[in-house]
């Protein structure tokens, strides 16, 4: 039996446009949490717009403020396991041509700015890896 209301989560792919193509930010939480390389993730609060959740989560998890643009690239993913019901909504977060400084909260271990190829190999969850491919194709097309 599944929960009556799924949890909605935003998966935010922060990227910096450069003359050599986009570079993607991936983060990793500490060992006590899942410790996987991933984009910025966070729960969407009730009555909160997806875009507002994306800006809030990026600010809270990286210290980066004010995107140049948010891009809805059509990524949606739902995972249901028993009572667990999660819906991911993907957004691209364009920081512009200059790489901003990143300030991680204490429960995070590391971050990296990566090329698409590096990000695709590094992100450790299949649906999130597929999403960076989808965003990259949108940015490249």
Word description of this protein:
It is a single chain. The chain is α+β, with helices and mostly antiparallel strands and 141 residues long. It has three helices and eight strands, in the order E-E-E-E-H-E-E-E-E-H-H. Strand 6 and strand 7 (84-94) form a beta hairpin. It starts with 6 loop residues before the first strand and ends with a helix.
Kindly report the name of the CATH homologous superfamily. Answer: Nucleoside Triphosphate Pyrophosphohydrolase
Question: Could you name the CATH topology?
Answer: Nucleoside Triphosphate Pyrophosphohydrolase
| Low-confidence runs of at least 5 consecutive residues | none
Mean pLDDT: 93
Topology:
Elements: E1 7-16, E2 23-29, E3 37-38, E4 40-43, H1 50-62, E5 69-71, E6 76-81, E7 84-94, E8 108-114, H2 116-122, H3 126-140
Parallel strand pairs: 1-7
Antiparallel strand pairs: 1-2, 1-4, 2-3, 2-8, 5-7, 6-7
Helix pairs in contact: 2-3
Task: Record keyword descriptors for this entry.
3 helices; alpha+beta; 141 residues; Nucleoside Triphosphate Pyrophosphohydrolase; 8 strands; 35% strand; single chain; eight-stranded mixed beta sheet
């Amino acid at each position: 039996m599944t929960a009556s209301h799924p949890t909605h989560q935003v998966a935010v792919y922060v990227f910096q446009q450069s003359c050599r193509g986009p570079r993607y930010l991936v983060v990793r939480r500490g060992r006590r949490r899942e410790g996987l390389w991933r984009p910025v993730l966070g729960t969407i609060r009730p009555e909160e717009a997806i875009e507002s959740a994306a800006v809030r989560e990026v600010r809270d998890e990286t210290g980066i403020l004010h995107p140049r643009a948010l891009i809805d690239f059509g990524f949606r993913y739902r995972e249901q396991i028993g009572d667990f019901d999660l819906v991911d909504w993907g957004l691209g977060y364009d920081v512009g041509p200059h790489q901003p400084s990143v300030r991680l909260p204490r429960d995070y271990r590391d971050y990296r700015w990566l090329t698409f190829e590096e990000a695709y190999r590094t992100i450790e969850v299949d649906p999130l890896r597929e999403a960076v491919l989808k965003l990259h194709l949108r940015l490249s097309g």
